[in-house]
Amino acid sequence: MSEAVSALKGASFDGIVTVEEMGLQGMITLRGDLASPEMKKAVKDATGLNVPEQGHIAGEGGNWVAWMSPDELLLIVAYESVSDTEASLRDALSKVHHLAVNVSDTRAMFRLSGNGALVREAIAKLCPVDMRTEAFAPGQFRRSRMAQVPAAIWMPDESSVQVVCFRSVAEYAFNLLKGAAAPGSEVSLFS
Amino acid sequence: MSTRLANGGRLLNKGRALDFTFNGKRFKGVEGDTLASALLANDQMMVGRSFKYHRPRGIVASGGEEPNALVGLGEDAKFEPNQRVTTTELFDGLTCTSQNHWPSLEFDIGAVNSKLARFLPAGFYYKTFMFPRPFWKHIYEPFIRQSAGLGKAPRDRDQDSYEHFYAFFDVVVIGGGVAGLQAAKAAGQAGAKVLLMEQTPHWGGRAPVDGGTIDGQPVDNFVDQIVSDLETMENVTLRTRMMGSGVYDHGYVLGYERVSDHQPGAKSPRHRLWRIRAGQIVTATGAIERPISFAGNDVPGVMLASAVRDYAVNYGVSVGDRTVVVTNNDDAYRTAITLKKLGLDVPVIVDARAGGGGALAGEAAALGIRVENGKGIARVKGGKRVEGVEICTQAGEGAALELIKCDAVAMSGGWSPVVHLWSHCGGKLLWDDENAMFRPDGDKAPTGADGKRFVIPAGSADGYLDLATVLENADVAGKAAAEATGYVPGKAEAPVATPETAAPIEAVWMMPQGASIKLRMKAWLDYQNDVKVSDVQLAAREGYESVEHAKRYTTLGMATDQGKLSNINGLAILSDSLSQPIPQTGTTTFRPPYTPISLASIAGEARNETFQPLRKTPMHAWHEENGAYWEPVGAWRRPYCYQKPGETIEEALHREITQTRDSLGMLDASTLGKIIVKGPDAGKFMDMLYTNMMSTLKPGRCRYGLMCNENGFLMDDGVVARLDEDTFLCHTTTGGAENIHGHMEEWLQTEWWDWKVYTANVTEQYAQIGVVGLKSRKVLEKLTDDDIGGDALSFMGWKEITLTGGIPARVFRISFAGELSFELAVPASRGRELWDKLIEAGAEFNVTPYGTEAMHIMRAEKGFIMIGDETDGTVIPQDLGMQWAISKKKEDYLGKRAQERSHMTDPTRWKLVGLETLDGSTLPDGAYATADGTNANGQRNVQGRVTSTYHSPTLGRGIAMGLVLNGPDRMGDVLDFPKVDGTVIKAKIVEPIFYDKDGEKQNV
Amino acid sequence: MLILTCPCCGVTAEETEFHGGGEAHIKRFGPGSSDEDFHGYLFEKVNPKGVHFERWRHANGCGKWFHAARCTVTLEVFGTYSAQTTEPPQDIKDKISAKRPGWSWREFA
């Protein structure tokens, strides 16, 4: 019986938007030639998803492939299935130079949900990112910083944002997000 | 006296009275008041004392340029010093206190400075307090400190919240007067995404007070209409109570939003600092009226003419019953006309211009107001409030022609465009002689990332003072901003205002023109810092000819108002003293913020628990619950030791080390950097990174390695494990993980980009636990069925095992303490689980978690180096006797060439040795070993220094390592290490290994 | 505070996402090189007033290094380009020539 626990064990906060730590996620850093047919096939076979365009993320629910850099993807799958996914990638890519490494426990993931405009505003208080609808939309994936730590964000839909950061700073990140979602702190720019 | 009028007050809601206190006195104001207008409505003319001479001072202005009226606002955790009453909105229950006086505002001991003013000219402090030198520390400095400082720092923690907000717009218009409104509309109509910000709570700026008609309607109606037009435009955002604080490179603007200053107790943040990127910035920041320098121009009741008008029209407050207006331009006539129409007395308008004014002068005369052309004010009579003025000929030296009784003086020395935001990022100015002002030089605008201009001034900020040209100019600015951001401006034309015919301004910098020294010593330029005309003239005489030097010598413009009222007058006086034209003198540099902003708004979210990120390992909570005494290591917090109740730190260290060596210890080593290096060229790459040969390492084995930078200096060390033919796992120091990963990526991306290697930083994937000591194998055997015996897992080997509960682990047979030990790496999500299991399983062996200090002591007992102790960025491996870790076979590695440089191979470089004190005491960290003689500076020569020093519980004595001249060849020599208290500790040079020299303990 | 466009991930971001890495197009000298060459490689960096070529890393972003051509006086950015090159690409040089005729930097012009 696994007793694996995420950094904040699913802590949550209700403010102008809801902030939740999403618990354990399966994550794999996959590096290689993203344009190669082997890579495309390996990703498709392992996740059912296509390799996304530069700056984008493919997927839904708990199954994602994010474009991290010109030679790096982040695969997000169920925590329990990460070793199967890893094995599938390893087999498919055995002939080509690549790196697939389990980073599930390296990270923490948060979801902000509620009013779409307020969700965008909460992020815009912490990240130097243009969060206007015309600049950032579901499907895009942005690595940046959240206050003083690196973070990546995307919008699964118009009313939520997911944030990935390092596990060791999960508590700092959660406190940041709680502050950004504090009651009464609506900026009312996007709404 | 100043009082509330029965009529007027366009910004007031007279239906709602508000209570507030000033110095404990209870006053009443109404909704819509600023603290300034409310104080004036209660005849509180005197609101503070000046900084240097402690002269009585009153409100001078009606906006952010106010130099005098600063108060301490609020109490306890809400207290804030130096708040301008003119920009503080009144709220019910407001409390404030005046500043810079003792014991009271009315009676102030420090005011004696004013009587001594003759002896306290500019530069007084520099000249007087220089000699004799010993006096500085014990007499001068305590005296100056006692009298220095504006306001008092708050004592309690600020309870409010603050935040940042990152925003992006095509066009940001700063200033919500008629120019800003029109510019925003023009840009918005073209389709640009526009932000219009206004620092006050009201739109329209001062145009509604000044009057006139736009498109045939009163200004107020125009403002209402354009604001409602803008509100319906989806691409335009309107924000009041938001000041453009600064303009920076590449279109970066800071907007300072005072969200809830006016409604304390609201849930919202108090201030929000907008960090904005703008395609184009339109500065519609208006203009500021200048005072005139005449004797007594600082007596409470002497005010800017525009401010007198503002208080009357906006707040229904008359500053005086009898107001003398003094001016060098037409605009001040509006004040006289306004007051007269409100039924107040204007005994005279003193116009310095021999030829007098234009159309407005005619209107004033028609109202029966006496006008004296070519005249000036010789001096203002009165101390704590105005009692009258002496009129003189402007062209003369100040002989009084007539004493006119009055209780207020409204002065106008002309208008200066607010060019601050234009100038912040390099916009240049030109001197407009006709209008006696500096205005933006449109050909020398700040330029952005694309090399094109990104700031456009509009309206009076661009030097246009009459309503008609202001609107025309603002419309052009708005359209230009939209065009520059890729939109096509519409055909709509600018609104048309009735033009006016004004007589030109006449530059008047001093009144009267030939004022005697006695008058000049009472003619104030900088109210807050008490700088007078005579001080600037003195500075010029003493050779401070550069405006920047004169500023610092006199402190002109260095107060919290940054010279908004004083700078132009001051540099005009300086130019006059130097007999050079004003543009040749130039201005001082305009720097952000435009007016002071709260430090908390700059900090934003970086306060309290989010002040900085704290990195926590999966076992952090256990450490916290078990007496961890924390040590910051990078952003991590690691237990330095675990204190049991009643235990000192020394006792805790002693217990942790002896129990680890005798039986079993445990260390949370999760913070160690862990980096995967994989690929066909990984071995080749590893050989470049490390000084040792790493490519020959066999899968399943570990090797300790050193990493140097291209300068040859040691930068990191750690154990490398080869996971498979293609893959290495590099352990780095705790602080080094991100740097070393960056270092690897840098070489791969920028030098060897054709090498087939990928890296990944997996530091946080694993919780890592060191299980250390005689019983370490025994405890692990309780938790796994896998073979971890000496044959299956020999020293410097690693293998994958499964622990109780199915925890997958990599176990490394490595030792940093010199005992039998294992490092277990398990998924971080199961780190705490394993830690708890080890505590439980180890109970029978008296398992003892130990911290970083015990780790340090145990490694020092073994003579292992520590990056950051034995190294300081100037130490090479050869200095540390680590030639064994440097491959001779490799053609190249990072740092190899540098280590061949002449002074790297110099035999006199200090080398690592052990040090044993003769008396068993512990050497101070960083102590130097002295040598004979002195150096060129007369300092003792030195021959070595201590790099690590501890009391060793194992040996019961002090042990140390150090770098010593010819150290390895001088075994047994005794060195002198002087301590700070002058005594000397003698220490013998020994081998740098104090415990288990043959490594028998770790190899079992 | 500058804004730069990372050519590796296409993001235009403020300076806080980036980390400056000094002069670009430095040739490495290793074992076997002369003292003079090695000294030049390690220590002799140019700090021109005007056109300059720099290394930047998108540290709080895609993590990649790239090069930027910039004017150190006006802070104008002429362009950013791949770090996997030993000299500025022709299109960047052309852009600079159009704006700063007669420029030169090290051996490039």
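qc> Chain C has a mean pLDDT of 97.
qc> done
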